[in-house]
Amino acid sequence: WLFPINFVPVYQVFAFRIVFQKAMERASPDENLKVRVLNLIDSITFSVFQYTTRGLFECDKLTYTAQVTFQILLMSKEINAVELDFLLRYPAQTRVTSPVEFLSNYSWGGIKALSSMEEFRNLDRDIEGSAKRWKKFVESECPEKEKFPQEWKNKSALQRLCIMRAIRPDRMTYAVRDFVEEKLGSKYVVGRSLDFATSFEESGPATPMFFILSPGVDPLKDVEKQGKKLGYTFNNRNFHNVSLGQGQEVVAEQALDLAAKEGHWVILQNIHLVAKWLSSLEKKLEQHSEGSHQDFRVFISAEPAPSPDSHIIPQGILENSIKITNEPPTGMHANLHKALDNFTQDTLEMCTRENEFKSILFALCYFHAVVAERRKFGPQGWNRSYPFNTGDLTISVNVLYNYLEASSKVPYDDLRYLFGEIMYGGHITDDWDRRLCKTYLEEFIKPEMLEGELFLAPGFPLPGSMDYNGYHQYIDDTLPPESPYLYGLHPNAEIGFLTQTSEKLFRIVLEMQPRDSSMGEGGVVTREETVKALLDEMLEKLIDEFNIAELMTKVEERTPYVVVAFQECERMNILTSEIKRSLKELDLGLKGELTMTSDMENLQNALFLDMVPESWIKKAYPSTASLGMWFADLLTRIKELETWTGDFSLPSAVWLAGFFNPQSFLTAIMQSTARKNEWPLDKMTLQCDVTKKNREDFASPPREGAYVHGLFMEGARWDAQAGIITDARLKELTPAMPVIFIKAIPADKQDIRSVYPCPVYKTRQRGPTYVWTFNLKTRENPSKWVLAGVALLLQI
């Protein structure tokens, strides 16, 4: 399986030739031709793999590794294309109910889909029949390392991956890594990055080194260190450092001319800041790539483009460079040390109020590490991503010093305000994220911290007065192992984050598959056949649009609820007519009766990849579902609307997630009550009481307000018996809520004691999908649920 050239990004083809030649030189010689060819293939494959991965960010490396592995195995016919298609696409059956409590309905949908394939026949029966053994396997900590129950342990590595995808999606990044190691060898999954000196050996006058920047990392330290070793320093005047973005383009060009002639080194920092000059730089580098001094070297740094369409670095520069990524360390342990590294023993001694200063400084370091690293938990961590940086921390410590020197008492409120609303809060644009930031500071910086009673995390008390090295030692000795608990989150947050990472991995690899037809032999139908079958099925299932004029004749009074129903019907008509229009157009295109346009090709591609097409998303509601699940959900929404508009009487329990605009229905509850009682609308609020019942238990709507169902809680669960929020159960990521009774009351009558103001979002993406705030009863301090990122979701 020779490493095919199409696994290499297009801008690297020129460099690929050089890597290819060097790999051939490096391959072990052998007199046996077969062995020699195998050695060549192994050396070339690994060299190109290594060359490409060092220019990728950590989050993309496994995607690339998986793609390489699957393509090599497909070419050598070691894996079945149908099974790979299942792994990447995961066409789970919808509307199935899991018969076993240790698997979700979504997991069971995958098992049912697998069981319809010959190689997996009776998998569903075996899981039901040997539930105890499967439960133990599914609930083990690292199931990818365990043997599968029964004869399923004898299945191929890819078949085991397919089953694992259904039963433990959160472990798939680990399982794929193990699969790569089994098939290609451990050198493909070892996490150590190449040291700079090794990469430097491949550079030359025509091959610059290109550093892709990450926040908080200075790759140029490596260049300076290597330069010092080889006699290139600023003092020796053979090492030139030009920081671009402040009109330094002429200086940079002069430095390049001099260096090419004399054999010096040149660093060009932040070239992304001088977009217009980049074509001149490309020409200058090309000019000096031949005939320059053999010791001439160029080192370039730039930030990655925020999106594919905003790339500005010329292809020629990328093509000829060795690309290297440097990323900051991850995890609480590394980040806490890194935060403390911004200070010295002198910093600790500079304040006359030494004890207070040291305690608050350490708490600030922990706070800084938490807010920076919490990003990895996605929307449950922060609604939006913020560029917190070391400057926020060092300025906060300066402010702390000034305030302590100027005050006789520690001004806790002032300090928290300055840190939370200005220094760090200055980055924050979302109100719920602002609340989170404020809550962390209220928990970490308060008078109890000087009495030795403050825990920054479970098992990690705030240390007493120590010297600088003592604090570093304290972190090593006392900080518990990495876990969501260190951030105030429930362990489920990690399961959710790992599951979403796995979903993203497979979606990207699926999108990277060859587009010519199918994924190869093995009975996979062609791309066109797959799309045509799906298109026909959708057109058949979509009903006629709602006849608004006819519906209006049924209505005696246009109540707020009736207005909402009409608005929803209108929105649904716009969406379904776009779906029908685009599908019929594509159908004609596939038959050859219409010329295929780029829009039609995009639609075909989305249908094939099981993604909701862009033109539908624009007219629909936020959703994170795959196309199959999205379409099933759409049909359910239509059915709910049909039932409601049958006689326009309010359903006994309303499916809040079924609305394009749930806010309009919640507002209608307030409008109805306001009209009935002649209360001013702006002086009203919603009160929500969580019942102990499910949807089926209600036969009629309440006299005032509405019963709503279909909500889920993330970050915690609802204890129906006690009527309060409580800790989530492990692996129950989004437990369903009972029916909630929502009614409107005067704002001054609401009871806000012992409640957690819980945000309601349409999807797990949170952020812009915010709907409302429901006050939920809690016996514990609401700050616990703020840090845990507890929210109600309308879709999961």
Mean pLDDT: 91
Q: Which sheet architecture does the biggest sheet show?
A: 5 strands, parallel
Q: Which structural class do you get from the secondary structure elements?
A: alpha/beta
The tally of helices reads 30
Question: How many strand elements?
Answer: 17
> Considering DSSP H and I runs of 4 or more, what fraction of the residues is helical?
40-55%
Strand order of the largest sheet: 2-3-4-1-5
**Which runs of at least 5 residues are low in confidence (pLDDT < 50)?**
1-6, 517-523
Overall spatial form: globular
Pfam family, one: AAA_lid_11
Organism: Anser cygnoides
GO molecular function, one term: dynein intermediate chain binding
InterPro entries: AAA_lid_11, AAA_lid_11_sf, DHC, Dynein_C, Dynein_C_barrel, Dynein_heavy_D6_P-loop, P-loop_NTPase
Brief descriptors of the model:
796 residues; alpha/beta; five-stranded parallel sheet; four-stranded mixed sheet; 30 helices; 17 strands; 48% helix
Describe the structure.
The two termini are 41 Å apart. A hairpin with a 4-residue loop joins strand 12 and strand 13. The chain has a 5-stranded parallel beta sheet, sandwiched between helices. With 796 residues, it is α/β, with parallel strands linked by helices. The relative contact order is 0.06. The chain is globular. The protein is built from 30 helices and 17 strands. Helix 23 (527-541) packs across helix 26 (598-608).
